[in-house]
Amino acid sequence: MILHIVKPVLSAVLQITILLLGIIWLLDSGAQAMGYSWQWQRIPDYLFFYEDGQWWPAELINGLVVTLKISALSLIATLLIGLITALLRVSNSIVGRILARCYVELIRNTPLLVQIYLLYFVFGPVIGLDRFSTAILALALFQGAYTAEIFRAGLNSIDVGQFEAAKSLGLPAYYTYKDVILPQVLQRTLPPLTNEVVSLIKNSSIVSVMAIFDLTTEGRNIVSETAMPFEIWFTVAAIYLLLTLSLSALAAGLEHKLGAQWRKE
Amino acid sequence: MVLKKTKVKALEFHNVDKWFGEFQALKQINLSVQEGEIVVVCGPSGSGKSTLIRCINGLEPYTSGQVSVFDNPDLNQQKGKVGMVFQHFYLFPHLTVLENLMLAPLRTLKLSKQEALERAMHFLTRVKIADQADKYPVQLSGGQQQRVAIARSLCMMPRIMLFDEPTSALDPEMINEVLDVMVELAQEGMTMVCVTHEMGFAKKVADRVVFMDEGEIIEIAPPEILFSSPHQERTKTFLNQILTH
To answer: How many CB atoms lie within 10 A of CB B113?
Structure first.
């Protein structure tokens, strides 16, 4: 069981190492030609520092915590928005279907950055949201539209007989979805849902435009203070990569576990 | 426990029409079934047999007329009191056999876990499949899955059982194990409406056989009469087609 989580992580780490070595060699020769002096030894100071007899998280780790917080909260909101929108789209209510359709089309067909500006400068102040909540709302609204389509595809893939069997047993609609339909939808949509979570984490870097001190913002601030863009941006990228890769591994393990016994091969 | 056939009307169709767009699937259906009666519905494919029984538990809304179950025309109120067995079983694939059986008693009847478990094991034993309780549907044969589906319906203590071609998706060697369960159920006095091509089953247990064609009930008669001396030409033609091989 552990092997299913460890194996993809190990193989990912190995591939990354090989790739990195190649890139490092290329970069180093390029930087030498530019006269860039590497200061990798200063990076750890931006991760953790030692003071008064104990270790404290430094800027980059603080930024990572903010990124994690934003991602986690908007993930929950994303799943809720996605699920409700998908259910509305397959519902009998004409108004519900139209609303859901408009939401999905509106969000999918405008740039995330523009949506963030609109929320940050227009809707946020109008409804009195703070910066942090606005960021979460922006991300969740954006990602929710894509997630809704994934859930809708999942719902449509469930045999109508499952609904009929539940109905003939007198199961109320709430339990039909909770106990019968959604567990099957989740199992079938886990791979594309993982994509959405990964892209949610990556998209969270865009909220740095609204002065939220996430990982990207912290990175930019350090760069402007220290003039060592190469090292900092590499470190920031590596942290994102570690985050998303471990998430992918987790999802792979979950996918294997979920429905391993009942899935038809 | 053998219930006596009573004069209580279990279900009644009164002038029921069903339209799918421009196509009329049911034409002026009048039929009443008494409690404890076994009715087999047969007819060529597309004749409206499935539509007919799907109207009984509200899976198919009818266009006009009235269907009532125990004098109640609100079919959504039945809450599992009209059980249904489908051609393709429709077990819940992500739940074990036991969980399939326990779900509706827990959620709809609000039984305790212990009660639901006892009831589930009781009916699993009755369909002779208690040893498979912890398996998932995909691990069972077709015949076993259909018996689980029957047990799942029985767990809701239905007053009427509907069977929609319960053996049509099964390999030939598994048909009898399902029919045996159905015969037993019939002998215990369950009210049953079965769409099936199993004429042996009809002869053995049916009180009446309904022959349908093109959305109409052509003929209703006890099996010994309908199979040996049908009155209608269309019934004769159909019976010749299915009985000659």
So the answer is: 10
Claim: this prediction has a pTM higher than 0.95: no
CA dihedral (B187, B189, B191, B197) in degrees, to 10, reads: 0
Instruction: Report chain A residues whose CB lies below 8 A from the CB of B108.
Output: 169-172, 175
Residues of A in contact with B92 (CB under 8 A): 162, 165, 179-180
Q: Where are the beta strands (DSSP E) in chain B?
A: 9-20, 23-34, 38-42, 64-69, 82-85, 160-164, 191-195, 208-213, 216-221
Closest CA of chain A from B22, distance in Å: 22
Name which of A171, A184, A262 is nearest B104 (Cβ-Cβ): A171
Check pLDDT > 80 for residue B1: no
Asked whether the beta carbons of residue B82 and residue A168 sit closer than 8 angstroms, the reply is: yes
Interatomic CA distance for residues A70 and A138, integer angstroms: 11
Q: What is the mean pLDDT of residues A222-248?
A: 90
Q: Which residues touch B240 (CB under 8 Å, ≥6 apart)?
A: none
- Which residues from chain B sit within 8 angstroms of residue A261, using beta carbons? 136, 139
Report percent pLDDT > 90 for chain A: 57
- Closest residue of chain B to A159, computed from CA coordinates: B90
pLDDT band at A255; cut points 50, 70, 90: confident
- CB within 8 Å: B90 and A165: yes
ipTM score of the complex? 0.92
- Tokens standing for residue A222: 């350090």
Question: What is the pLDDT, as a whole number, of residue A118?
Answer: 92
- How does pLDDT run across B9-53, given as a tens digit for each residue? 999 999 999 999 999 999 999 999 999 999 999 999 889 999 999
Supply angle C-alpha B48, B53, B54, rounded to 5.
Answer: 95
What is the structure's pLDDT at B126?
94
Pick from A164, A170, A183: which is nearest to B94 by CB?
A183
Q: pLDDT tens-digit profile of B124-153?
A: 999 999 999 999 999 999 999 999 999 999
How far, in Å, CA of B108 to CA of B3, rounded?
A: 26
Q: Which string of b and e fits A176-192 if b means at least 16 CB within 10 Å? A: bbebbbbbbbbbbbbee
Q: Specify the pLDDT at position A265.
A: 45
Number of Cβ within 10 Å of residue B84's Cβ equals: 26
Q: Would you call B103 and A264 a contact, using CB atoms and an 8 Å cutoff?
A: no
A-chain residue closest to B154, CA distance: A169
Pairing of strands B38-42, B191-195: parallel
Length of chain A equals: 265
